[in-house]
Amino acid sequence: VLGRSMVVGKPVSMLLLGENATVTICHSKTKDLPKVCANADVLVAGVGRARMVKADYVKEGAVVIDVGINAKPEGGGICGDVDTDDVVGKASMVTPVPAGVGSVTTSILAKHVIKACKQQNNK
């Protein structure tokens, strides 16, 4: 997991640990960051830096899940933490940004809003 935020990095790490995955958490102070990331079979990127993850961060055939959402540095839209054009030839799969994990986030948010509404109305 690339990122240690309370929004993405830590919760994703805990979910993966709950499924008995062996998890490595990386962040901006991790030494040899690309090398450490390149050991992962699954790389979850949530660092908040546009297109930071390049091909050297990715193991051949790895699955890359881009949770990042950033303004494009050149303007005119959004992009993820993964430089998809650079990574796509190396990874077996890369989630896109936009139109990737955002729909999952929206679904979970809707579920929590409904649950909160029911709790407030004792139903």
UniProtKB/TrEMBL annotation:
Protein name: methenyltetrahydrofolate cyclohydrolase
Domain Tetrahydrofolate dehydrogenase/cyclohydrolase NAD(P)-binding: 1-120
Annotated GO biological process: amino acid biosynthetic process; tetrahydrofolate interconversion
One GO term describing the cellular component: cytosol
Top-level EC class as recorded in UniProt: hydrolase
InterPro entries in the record: NAD(P)-bd_dom_sf, THF_DH/CycHdrlase, THF_DH/CycHdrlase_NAD-bd_dom
EC number(s) given by UniProt: 3.5.4.9
This protein's UniProt keywords: Amino-acid biosynthesis
